[in-house]
User: Which sequence fits this backbone?
């Protein structure tokens, strides 16, 4: 999950194998929580299934990545979130980021509420 320069919520689902891709049935649930949704796959991955109707190519984008770089090969369609959903998602993202940062800098901060 990321927040882009325009404040849009972006989800990137990483898939490393065809079996991983085809066995994941929960990903459509994420569409209601982001403005843009991408599949990220390694170089050489057969993206054929991602072009099929089951993977909503009119809505989802594709990123080809390796350990050093990534390229968007199909841009994701932007579907703006309702304001209340965006606020809830942005606050959840900020709270989680704050908890992770505090945990890295202060090991005694366990249990702080955000």
Assistant:
């Amino acid at each position: 999950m990321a927040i882009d320069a325009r404040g849009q919520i972006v989800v990137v689902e990483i898939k490393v194998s065809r079996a991983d891709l085809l066995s994941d049935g929960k990903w459509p649930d994420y569409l209601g929580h982001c403005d843009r949704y991408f599949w990220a796959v390694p170089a050489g991955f057969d993206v054929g299934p991602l072009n099929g109707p089951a993977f909503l190519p009119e809505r989802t984008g594709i990123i080809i990545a390796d350990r050093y770089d990534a390229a968007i090969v199909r841009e994701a369609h932007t579907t703006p979130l309702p304001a209340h959903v965006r606020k809830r998602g942005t606050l959840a993202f900020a709270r989680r980021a704050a908890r992770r940062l505090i945990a890295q800098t202060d090991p005694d901060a366990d249990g702080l509420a955000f």
About this structure: The mean pLDDT is 93. The first strand starts at residue 2 and ends at 3.
